[in-house]
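Whiteboard transcription, Tuesday session. T.W. wrote the C-alpha cells on the left side:
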C-alpha cells in the first residue's frame, strides 16, 4: 500500500483511494541534519529542491520545472530518509509507494494505479492546504526496467508508459506542484526514456559513507544510548569500512543489546567490538570443532594475522577461532584509511595475506585443508584484477580475449611468487607462529593490540 504523508512524516501510513491522510501534528519530521554520511548527496538534493520552494523565481527566469530526482546507491544508504527529509524541507505532502505495488497479472491495472497515485497526491495536497507534493517510488527498477524484456506480459510496459505520461504532464503552472523522487540500487536496468531530461532531471548518487560520514552516523545513533568512557567512536568508524548507514544503526543496536544482556548500565567498547563481528559474520555458533580441528583453525588464522601484521603494521583488529555464521574462524582487518584505488603493491600484499593461512597449515601441520577454499578464491580474484589493470608482464590486455592457457599461467605465476614470499616470512617466524596459535587455542580470540604485543616480544622486523 502506498503512503499519503504530510510534511516530514516517517511513520504515518495510509492506503489507496479513500484513505485518510495523517495530520501534521502526529507526524515526526525528518531534517537533513538528522541524516549523516551523505553530505554530497544532501548538498546536490537541496540545490535541486530550491526550484520547488521558489516557484515565483523559477517562473520569472523561465526555468523548466524539475520533474524527477533519482536517488541511486547501495541498499541501506539512506535514500528513503533523504526523500522524507526533502518533503520536510519543501513543506510538501509526502506520498510513498513501492515499485512492486503497480505490477499485477491483469494488464492495465498497474497503469490505473499510477494514475490514481498522481490523482490522490493532488487531492491530498488540496485537503491539507499545500501547494507541493513529493511522490516517492522506492525500488523503481521493478516497474521502470527496460521495456520489451518481458515479452509474455505487457503489464510492465503499460505501467511504465503511464508513469512516463504522468511525468510529461507535470508543469510549474499546475495548481499543485508535483516532484517525483525514486530510489534504486540498479540504475543500469532502468529504461532510457525514464532517465532522459524532462523526466528524471537529476540523478543523485547516494554512496556508502566514508570514515568521517560513518563517524557522524554513529554519533546520531548513539545520542540516546549511555556510552562508557572507553568508547571510541572514531576507532569504530575506522573499523567499519564499507558499512552502510543501516549497518551502523544495526551495530549500535546490537551493542546495546549485548550490554543489556550483561545487565550493564552503559555500553562499553567491548560491546561495540563484539557487535562489529556479529554484523559482519553473524551470531556465534554453539557447535565447536574438536581439538584437532581447533589446532588447525588456530594455525590457519594465525598465519593470516601474522603475515597481515608484518606487511601492514597495525592493520589487524581482531583474531578469533570462535565459529560465526559459516566461518570457523577469522581475522578482521581494518585499513587506516578508506581505500578506493588499489596499487600493485597493495594487491600483492592482499594476495599474500589471503594465502597465508594455508601456507601456515602446510608448514606446521604438514598438510592443508579445505578451509582455504574461500581464501584462494579471493587470491585468484586479486590476481585477475592485476591482469585487468595491466599490472603484469603481459601489460594491458583484454581478459575476455586472452587464451585460457595464458590466463592460467599468469595467475599461477602471481600465486607462486606470493607463496614463496609468505613461506619465507612464516618459516622465519616459526616459533612466533606456534606461540600465537597456542595462545589462540586457550583464549579463542584476542585483539590486534595483544597480537602486536606478542610480535614485539620476539622483535619481529
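and on the right, the sequence the group agreed on:
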Amino acid at each position: 500500500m502506498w503512503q499519503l504523508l504530510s510534511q516530514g512524516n516517517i511513520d504515518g501510513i495510509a492506503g489507496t483511494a479513500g484513505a485518510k491522510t495523517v495530520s501534521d501534528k502526529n507526524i515526526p519530521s525528518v531534517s537533513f541534519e538528522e541524516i549523516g554520511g551523505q553530505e554530497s548527496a544532501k548538498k546536490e538534493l537541496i540545490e535541486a529542491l530550491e526550484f520547488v520552494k521558489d516557484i515565483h523565481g523559477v517562473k520569472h527566469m523561465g526555468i523548466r520545472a524539475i520533474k524527477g530526482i533519482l536517488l541511486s546507491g547501495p541498499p541501506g544508504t539512506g535514500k528513503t530518509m533523504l526523500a522524507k527529509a526533502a518533503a520536510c524541507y519543501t513543506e510538501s505532502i509526502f506520498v510513498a509507494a513501492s515499485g512492486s505495488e503497480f505490477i499485477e497479472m491483469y494488464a492495465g491495472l498497474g497503469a490505473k494505479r499510477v494514475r490514481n497515485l498522481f490523482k490522490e497526491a493532488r487531492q491530498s495536497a488540496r485537503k491539507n492546504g499545500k501547494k507541493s507534493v513529493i511522490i516517492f517510488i522506492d525500488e523503481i527498477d521493478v516497474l521502470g526496467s527496460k521495456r520489451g524484456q518481458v515479452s509474455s506480459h505487457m503489464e510492465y510496459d503499460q505501467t511504465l508508459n503511464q508513469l512516463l505520461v504522468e511525468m510529461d504532464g507535470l508543469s510549474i503552472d499546475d495548481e499543485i506542484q508535483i516532484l517525483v523522487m525514486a530510489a534504486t540500487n540498479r540504475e543500469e536496468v532502468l529504461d532510457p526514456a525514464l532517465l532522459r531530461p524532462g523526466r528524471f532531471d537529476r540523478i543523485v548518487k547516494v554512496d556508502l559513507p566514508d570514515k568521517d560520514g560513518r563517524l557522524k552516523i554513529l554519533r546520531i545513533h548513539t545520542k540516546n544510548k549511555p556510552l562508557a568512557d572507553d568508547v571510541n567512536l572514531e576507532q569504530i568508524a575506522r573499523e567499519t569500512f564499507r558499512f552502510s548507514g543501516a549497518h551502523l544503526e544495526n551495530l549500535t543496536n546490537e551493542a546495546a543489546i549485548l550490554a543489556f544482556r550483561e545487565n550493564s548500565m552503559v555500553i562499553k567498547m567491548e560491546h561495540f567490538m563484539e557487535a562489529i563481528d556479529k554484523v559482519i559474520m553473524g551470531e556465534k555458533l554453539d557447535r565447536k570443532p574438536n581439538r584437532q580441528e581447533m589446532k588447525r583453525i588456530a594455525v590457519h588464522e594465525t598465519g593470516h594475522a601474522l603475515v597481515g601484521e608484518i606487511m601492514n603494521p597495525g592493520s589487524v583488529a581482531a583474531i578469533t577461532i570462535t565459529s560465526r555464521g559459516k566461518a570457523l574462524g577469522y581475522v578482521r582487518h581494518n585499513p587506516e584509511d578508506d581505500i578506493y584505488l588499489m596499487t600493485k603493491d597493495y594487491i600483492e600484499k592482499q594476495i599474500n595475506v589471503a594465502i597465508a593461512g594455508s601456507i601456515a597449515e602446510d608448514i606446521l601441520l604438514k598438510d592443508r585443508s579445505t578451509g582455504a577454499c574461500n581464501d584462494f578464491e579471493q587470491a585468484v580474484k586479486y590476481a585477475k584484477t592485476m591482469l585487468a589493470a595491466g599490472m603484469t608482464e603481459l601489460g594491458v590486455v583484454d581478459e575476455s580475449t586472452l587464451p585460457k592457457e595464458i590466463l592460467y599461467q599468469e595467475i599461477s605465476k602471481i600465486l607462486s611468487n606470493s607463496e614463496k614470499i609468505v613461506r619465507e616470512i612464516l618459516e622465519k617466524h616459526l616459533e612466533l607462529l606456534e606461540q600465537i596459535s597456542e595462545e589462540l587455542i586457550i583464549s579463542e580470540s584476542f585483539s590486534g593490540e595483544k597480537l602486536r604485543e606478542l610480535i614485539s616480544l620476539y622483535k619481529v622486523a
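Someone added at the bottom: The longest strand covers residues 177-184.
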